[in-house]
Amino acid sequence: MSIQGTASSTSLSPTGRAGGRFGDRLLTVLTSGAALATIAVLVLLVEQVVNGSSLSISAFGLGFLWHSTWNPTLSAGAVNANVYGAAVLIYGTVVTSVIALVIAVPLGVAIAVYLAVLAHGRVGAVIGPLVELLAAVPSVILGLWGIIVLAPFLRTTIEPALHAALGWIPIFGAPNPTGLGVFTAGVVLAIMVLPIIAAVCRDLFLTVPQDLKDGALALGMTRWEMIRGVVLDSSRAGIGAATILGLSRALGEAIAVTQVIGTGSTITASLFQNGDTLASRIAEQFIGTVSRLQTASLFYCALVLLVMELIANLAAQLITRRFQKRRGLAL
Amino acid sequence: MSTATGSSTTLLGAEDRNLRRRRLTDRLMRLSATAAAGLAVAVLAIVVGSVLIKGASALSIPFLTQNPAVGLGAVGGGIANAIVGSALIVAVGTAMALPLGILIALYLTEFATPRTAPPIRLVLDLLNGTPTIVIGVFIFGLLVVSHSQTGFAASIALAIIMLPLMARTTQEMLLLVPGDLRNAAHALGVRRWRMILGIVLPSALGGILTGAILAIARAFGETAPLLLCDSVFGNTTTLNIFGTAIPNIPIDIYRYSESGFPSDHARAWGAALVLIALILVGNLSARAMLARQRRKLAGR
């Protein structure tokens, strides 16, 4: 609206040279100011998170990363009272994300193959947007669905089956009576990550030159051999970048994970037991902390998460950029 | 290789079998790719279907027009205060993010040099990749810790989430504006700023606004930052965005979903239905409009 306001006022103003130059300069200043403001937001964000965690950093140092006690108790007699470490949370973050990727990467790549190579025009034009729509479902609704629909289903069917078949591996222990836990969180994350991986890979596969695909088919390859040998093989780096993008989404999800992971404070071998991630611990405890050190430790968790995200995002950027250069086009 | 000895019948058989195996693998792999796509659509249908079925039984006129009954486990009442509150904080957030997003996109397409554009783009990508709970922690440290939870803090957090999305779609739309238009304006001696405000922005405006709807739909469902900045609120409708926390739909769903009372689960489903209806309608209409806008701009 403000744009229209300025536009109409300009037609009233004299169109002298000085006025024109002033307008150019004003717009330059405004737009570059906005661009600088974005940088400022990111800098301020990092500064706030580091600042907020300083109390915990000076108390626990880097040991925070590998100590597993998280005890907000303040009573003087208690052992390890008011001591914090994030090892359990980092473990939970990594394990839930890995479960999500193990499920979502093969499925996402398969969906992308279907959409980019196999689907007939009209069917693909319906299914593609539907898959993308899955990403629009808010995490809090997916979490609600996870608690009430998915968790009972996993507890009564999938988890007993995995336990019966692969129970000799400790990670497939006895199912949790609530159905909540690390595995359930991983499945919910897989649903959230799937549309991202599918969409990125589809766009990637669409850029594979048609000549290469036609050539492979002309040599007598079946379509699957063409997909494996030409489409997938030439997109390996891009699939890696898509995986990292999915990972970065899974690492940071707080709400849905909090709803279905069941809150645990120990590392358990079985995936069917309760756990916690960095993000879910922040969501659970931030409102209602009992000490400044606890708040600072939650800030420290956010800092660890931020560093993990930065690494993942930069890695994805790096891979995509190199990949684009090699394929010689912008995605 | 084997074709050289193709006259031998046994080898022909082997080749036949080989071909059959390859065809079978081909069909199997194509079938499983199709099945994967079907599975994703099925998951979407099950999630949305659950919300529709379970939410419909909680939905009623009073549910939309009344404020909630007091306390967890209470029966009756609605989520009117949360609907009003969500609309308010998202509107204020949009009022901040949309102009800023447009200015950033203008900078990137019209003013930035090859040197200055990549860092800005990187920062936008990094902001976009930052977990929303960390954005919540950031705004908590900036505004809430020294003061109290306010709806405005939530609006700022939502604005930071929407900003990179809006900047990206706007940029995409600005790049679609035909170069001929710009050249014609230049040839007529039109000043750059007048060309941008009078020609480039108006021709991209439809696309920019539909892109904004997608970002707004995303902001409506965002829960994590609200949990830290805007979650301790009462049962009444309030518009005092700078003074108190503002009731909102996502936190209602979150709180009711964590409760053990069946009546709260019913309320959660009802609120989820309202939220998902808003988001899906926004998404579907924006997508349809966006596709048309792209065709219009590209085809001119």
Topology, please?
The complex is a heterodimer of chains A (331) and B (300).
Chain A: H1 2-12, H2 17-60, E1 70-71, E2 83-84, H3 87-118, H4 121-134, H5 139-166, H6 182-206, H7 210-218, H8 223-234, H9 236-252, H10 255-261, H11 278-285, H12 292-327
Helix pairs in contact in A: 2-12, 3-6, 3-9, 4-6, 5-6, 5-10, 6-9, 6-10, 7-8, 9-12, 10-11, 11-12
Chain B: H1 9-58, H2 61-65, H3 80-111, H4 117-129, H5 132-144, H6 151-176, H7 179-187, H8 192-221, H9 224-229, H10 249-258, H11 262-299
Low-confidence stretches of chain B: 1-8
| Class derived from helix and strand content of chain B | mainly alpha
Percentage of residues in DSSP E strands of chain B: under 5%
Shape of chain A: globular
| The first-level CATH class name of chain A | Mainly Alpha
Write the element-wise H/E pattern of chain B from the N-terminal end onward. HHHHHHHHHHH
- CATH superfamily heading of chain A: MetI-like
Order of helices and strands of chain A: HHEEHHHHHHHHHH
Q: CATH superfamily of chain B, called what?
A: MetI-like
Distance between the termini of chain A: 32 Å
Number of structural units classed as domains of chain A: 1
Please count the helical segments of chain A: 12
CATH architecture of chain B: Orthogonal Bundle
Q: Order of strands across the widest beta sheet of chain A?
A: 1-2
